[in-house]
Amino acid sequence: MATTLGIPGPVPDEEGAGSPPPRPRARPPRRRQLGWIIPLFIVMLAFVVYSVPPYLTFDPAQSRVEVSDSPPFFYPLLVAHIIFGTVALLAGCFQVWPWFRRSYPKVHRWMGRAYFFGGVFPAGITVLGVAPFGHTGLGGNAGNTMLGVMWLITGFAGWRMARQRRFPEHRRWMIRSFALTTSIVVSRLWAVVLLTVQLPRVDTAYGGDEQAMIMAIGAAGVWLSWVVNLVIAEWWLEYTDHTGKPKSRRRPR
């Protein structure tokens, strides 16, 4: 129709293709790619800067966790757990960054090894030696112990899937693992929320015993920090595809 009206149509090339070449697929704007990763790095770095330095002195008196009346191995294992956990926390931020993963696949693989072998695995082992002797009561100690077990399971499963080159499953397990890794940060937020809710009830529910209230808040915060994180991770995996985009809900005809 275009040629009959005197308007030149597409000129066939040597192979006879009359249509223009397909346009390359546009990538998401860089601003969109950085929309959530920058706040994640800021929060994690702020937590590390505030929480870790006292333990680098190796002085039990500087500990932010109660260490009195603990076994002799408690504080050394606690320091090791915090150092290895910091490696997992910071390396994990890079591992869940899609742009970094696509742009630097070799670095991603090496950082993944650092995340598991220099972070999750030793931090999970040491927390199993610390958690039963914590000062958050039976409920909190049980919650931290289960967190350590689940952390090791999800991290090992993610590493094993990568070794078998089953990358979709690898991604799913590592998202679960990182959800558990960030539970230490989220637990501080839960503590603030729970304290706000329970403080007006200190005289009625706890008989004026503030220490009992703090123990209860600590135990509840431990469980909420990693259980809720896992629930959110499972929801994310259920409703997104392997690229992190929402799954299509259209039913096949």
Structure keywords:
mainly alpha, disordered N terminus, 253 residues
What report would you give on this structure?
- With 253 residues, the chain is mostly helical.
- The longest helix has 30 residues.
- It contains eleven helices and no strands.
In short:
The chain has 253 residues and is mainly alpha-helical.
Q: Provide the helix percentage.
A: 55-70%
Major sheet details: none
Low-confidence segments, given as residue ranges, are 1-17
What's the end-to-end separation, in Å? Answer: 36 Å
- Number of helical segments? 11
Quaternary state of the chains: single chain
- What order do the helices and strands follow? HHHHHHHHHHH
Query: How big is the Rg?
Result: 25 Å
Molecular shape: globular
Mean pLDDT: 86
Please give the number of β-strands.
0
Helix/sheet category? mainly alpha
Q: How much of the sequence is in beta strands? A: under 5%
